[in-house]
């Protein structure tokens, strides 16, 4: 659950489609990054970022603002029965830093309020740890929700069966580097 926060989640998505077909689909669904702020018209693509030479780095396009969209970085490679996407998902580093600052602030406020709280009377350390844990759990839950949505969308674009991607083991990651 916490792997989407740091260091990131590694997935393997196997597709029955050829590398050329998955490349065409991804090239069609990945919009170049927009330089203007948030005042742009909706785009028909599903992702924003880059895809070239089998390498990709993009995020899911959404209406409005959503800081919990994970960056998806990886590569497309051929397999005997189709193609494979090696994907690394991770939240934006600024979101992680903001979450850390928010957890520290929440912990400090809880520690100061500990004498007034009947649940943790005279235990500022317990109050601080509980408040920080709540913030971390909230960020992890939102990150996991967005990671699941982004993964399903990428599986659909790649022609894979949604829900059948699997996490890469550390051995698989080491071999592929």
Main attributes of the structure:
4 helices, disordered C terminus, 177 residues, alpha+beta, seven-stranded mixed sheet
Radius of gyration (CA) equals: 20 Å
Instruction: Give the mean pLDDT.
Output: 83
User: How are the strands of the biggest sheet laid out side by side?
Assistant: 2-3-4-5-6-1-7
Please tally the β strands and state the result: 7
Shape: elongated
Give the helix tally.
Answer: 4
Biggest beta sheet attributes: 7 strands, mixed
**Helical residue percent band:** 40-55%
Which blocks of ≥5 consecutive residues have pLDDT under 50?
Answer: 171-177
The total number of structural domains is 1
Structural class: alpha+beta
Strand content: 15-25%
Query: End-to-end distance, in Å?
Result: 24 Å
Please trace the helix and strand order, writing H or E for each element: EHEEEEEHHEH
């Amino acid at each position: 659950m916490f792997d989407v926060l740091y260091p990131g989640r590694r997935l393997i998505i196997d597709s029955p489609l050829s590398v050329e077909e998955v490349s065409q689909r991804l090239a069609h669904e990945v919009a170049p990054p927009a330089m203007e702020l948030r005042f742009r018209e909706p785009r028909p693509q599903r992702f924003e970022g880059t895809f070239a030479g089998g390498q990709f780095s993009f995020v899911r396009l959404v209406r409005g603002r959503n800081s919990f969209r994970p960056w998806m970085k990886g590569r497309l490679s051929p397999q005997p029965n189709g193609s494979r996407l090696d994907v690394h998902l991770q939240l934006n580093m600024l979101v992680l830093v903001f979450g850390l600052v928010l957890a520290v602030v929440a912990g400090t406020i809880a520690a100061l309020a500990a004498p007034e709280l009947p649940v943790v009377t005279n235990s500022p350390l317990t109050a601080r740890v509980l408040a920080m844990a709540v913030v971390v759990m909230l960020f992890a839950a939102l990150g996991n929700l967005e990671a699941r949505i982004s993964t399903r969308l990428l599986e659909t674009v790649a022609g894979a069966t949604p829900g059948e991607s699997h996490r890469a083991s550390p051995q698989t990651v080491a071999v592929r580097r």
